[in-house]
Design brief:
Low-confidence stretches: 151-156, 200-210
Helix content: 55-70%
Distance between the termini: 42 Å
Number of helices: 12
Structural class: mainly alpha
Largest sheet: none
Length: about 260
Amino acid sequence: MSPNVQASIALAEYKLNHPEAARSCLRTAILNFPWLFAHLFQELNVGHIPRATWGKAPRNDCERFESELYVTRAKDLWNTPEAISLLVEVAESLNDAPGGPVRNSPITLNEARHVILSDVPSLISLLPRSFTAMQASASDPLRPLDDEPSYSTTTATNSRELLASPEASQLDRTAATGRDEQEYRGLQAFFARFIPWLLPAGLPQADDPTVAYTREDVLAAVQRSGEPLHVVQQRGERMLELRQRRMQQDDANQAPQLDPDETFI
């Protein structure tokens, strides 16, 4: 059981006025995760740290992250004279708290998303670079792998027709270009979650001979992600289409043309 769950169960039992159950749960939690309670005592400004938790520190980055996350989010719930008294009483009743089995699970996408949305610098600093480098949207960072696309076929078709129409005003064209750019960035974020090496410069590099990857590499990455292959192909081809359009807008006369029969995978 994770440290946040064990500590939260003890607090819940206390709030429900089940003192013996609260003491039992809290005793188990302190024995398993003494570094979390050492940190909690510090945040609650407890003057005398009980011996069982004094000097206890996380043994690895996983335990440090779990401890910091729980104490940051839950310390205010413990910050009452009665709750602090219970914490000290139970901790003082223990001679030592050796800690349970070492926890060394990697930080998950959902945990990283929660931390970034919480906007707590001390927590964000504990995230691996692989997560902080993936952010594509300040309002919706690290979207779940099973999220729905933020665009529709109708929207994409309307944008194409509007950009191609000679009657379209400059304002209309600007709006359509903005929608294309937003869609393109959303597709970038989608692929960066499980094929980050495919987008080293923020663009799909399917025609870049310096990128050493094969079709089998891409298929293996897609299989590991759990995304349906037809969805990846559809979004990849749409991304290639948007890329070509961006190149044409940059230099309408000299932009290299992509092979119309090219596919993403």
